[in-house]
Amino acid sequence: MHSAFRAFLWVTSLPCVALACSPVTADRILGSDLAVADPRLNALPPSVVVGYAPLPGVKRLFTVADVGRIARMHNIVLDDAHELCFEVPLHALSNSEMVMAMRRVLPDGTQLAITDWPKMGIPGGDILFPLSGLEPAEMNGAQIWRGFVQYSGTRRTSIWARVELRQSFHAVVATRDLVANTVLDPSSVRSENWTGRIQREPVARTASDVIGKVLGRAVKAGEPFPLAAVAAPPVIRRGETVRVEVRCGPARLALSAVAERDGRNGELIDLRNPSTGKSFRARVYGAGAVLDLEAGNML
Length: 299
Known about the structure:
The chain is mostly beta strands. The protein has 4 helices and 19 strands.
């Protein structure tokens, strides 16, 4: 009994040899991949698809039965088939790779520090960190930036990093908290060298970019003015009676109409003919509007 027990221990303690996996970098496993893994399968058509590639970190196994079936389908005689294993090659995600990818989308002069990231293996491919992947800043100013690795043509695997970003540039900032629909005057703005969080949209750089314009959304004191948040004031107000010039070829006709919404120069707005009660659209020019009947508009 004692010697049998020792034999049992000796047998069960034999090392387990893992099946080596062949690398696959496309999104499908082809005949050419099987031929590399087992040269006896060289007669397989190189471009024939035999299966999907595994996800990163996962192994795709072709059993003895799978390999034998594929061989028979292509009239290949195998005396003894072997299991074949495939996996996507991985390498450790590095700080330098992420910095290079982030710098491609960050404005010039942005200070960047990566403080944490998953120590994970990633497939070879393009590392991308779109600005849309930046999450709101944490209490300490750090932000999670979500990106991905584009590999095998159409496949992606997600990655992330915790970053600290500071951007410095000359800007026009609000002198106080401003609410939407504020008409900006010189007392509302000041110019300064601004340093703060990354700006995802262009901001005003000179006072002339904002003074006299209307603020479309609230801006806090000390914050730059996004150019998309300011617009020229309307030259026509809703409810106003405006002069409309109707054009049809060389003919010209003038009439009065009531604006049904605010309008800025060059915009198409809805107007109502008070005589007929009918609405129509015309383009704003100065304090009036032009209706071009040849463009398909009707009174």
